[in-house]
């Protein structure tokens, strides 16, 4: 008889679960936006300021007997 009462009782939804899902989604969107902007700004910077050619760099000092 107690089982019949449990089945008929209306179950309320837990609003805390919905709010926690909303918070997680918002945080993930913010993190994704930050990554997107960082990558876009990096590419824009590299396009405006191309890196120097590798041949223009100073070669490393030759190995000496002291380093052996």
Overview of this protein structure:
The protein has 68 residues and is an all-alpha fold. The chain has a domain at 20-49. 60% of the residues lie in helices and 0% in strands. The chain has helices spanning 2-8, 15-48. It is elongated. The relative contact order is 0.05.
Global shape: elongated
Q: Total strand count, please?
A: 0
Radius of gyration: 31 Å
Instruction: Indicate the structural class.
Output: mainly alpha
Portion in beta strands: under 5%
Comma- or semicolon-separated keywords:
68 residues, mainly alpha, 2 helices, elongated, membrane, transmembrane helix
Report a brief summary of the structure.
By secondary structure, the chain is mainly alpha-helical. The chain has helices at residues 2-8, 15-48. The chain is 60% helix and 0% strand.
List the helices and strands and how they pair.
Elements: H1 2-8, H2 15-48
